Amino acid sequence: MATIFSKIIAGEIPSYKVAEDENYYAFLDINPLAKGHTLVVPKKEVDYYYDLDDETLAGMAIFAKRVAHKIKEQTGCKKVATVVLGLEVPHAHIHLIPMNSENDVDFRREKLKLTPEEFSEIASKLAE
Ligand code: AMP
Q: What domains are there in the chain, each with its CATH number?
């Protein structure tokens, strides 16, 4: 069965798209730790990040780099954290999180509640 991320990539489930190319897709995390918290996923459906083939893994880092620069530019954060963790969705993904202190990347923190308008506005700025 297709993962929720494959359904997002296929457009069967809506997402706040930030970037896309033939191999990767970036969209806003629906439970963000910070405004601009983005997920980068390969279109190829592989559960575990380190099971990705070398070419896909390397290409994903380069794709994420472009998105991370955009997040930094648009949010004015000090750095963008790159986090691979979680067992919730069996589809490899990188979290890109705007960071001004290490606390900003504590996944136990309460997530932001944003309106659809706020999500859309952030996504369109990051997609520019
Ligand atoms: P994890 O596997 O723990 O990294 O969790 C998966 C991440 O995907 C969580 O941060 C969720 O908030 C996020 N997520 C799950 N479903 C969606 C969705 N439909 N749109 C955007 N983000 C999602």
A: 4-127 (3.30.428.10)
Which residues lie closer than 8 Å to 93 by C-beta, 6 or more apart?
A: 5, 39, 40, 41, 49, 84, 86
Going from the Cα of 5 to the center of ligand 1, the distance in angstroms, rounded, reads 8
Give the DSSP H or E segment for 81: strand 79-83
Tell me the per-residue pLDDT of 76-95, one tens digit each, with 9 for 90 and over. 999 999 999 989 999 999 99
Pocket-testing residue among 39, 47, 112, ligand 1, by greatest number of atoms within 8 A of Cβ? 39
d(CA 34, CA 6): 24
